[in-house]
Description:
By secondary structure, the protein is mostly helical. Helix content is 73%, strand content 0%.
Amino acid sequence: RDLRMSRGLGDVYKRQQFMQTLPDTDRKIILLRMQNDTLAEIAQKLNFANAGSVSKHLAKIRKQLEIYRKK
C-alpha cells in the first residue's frame, strides 16, 4: 500500500502536525511521493542507494503514522 497523506489523515491541520514530527528526509520522501515520483526517482533525488531504501523509509513512516493516529 502506498503512503498518501491526502488519503491518510484528510484533515490539513493534522497532516501538518504529523509532518512536523518527521525528520526532513522523511518529509521530502512524502512530498515527492505526493508528486507521483517513483521510488527509484526519489532514491536518485535524495541520494539513496536504491529504491529499496526509500521503501524502508516509507514503511517506517507508515508505522509512525499508525502511532500518531492512535494519540
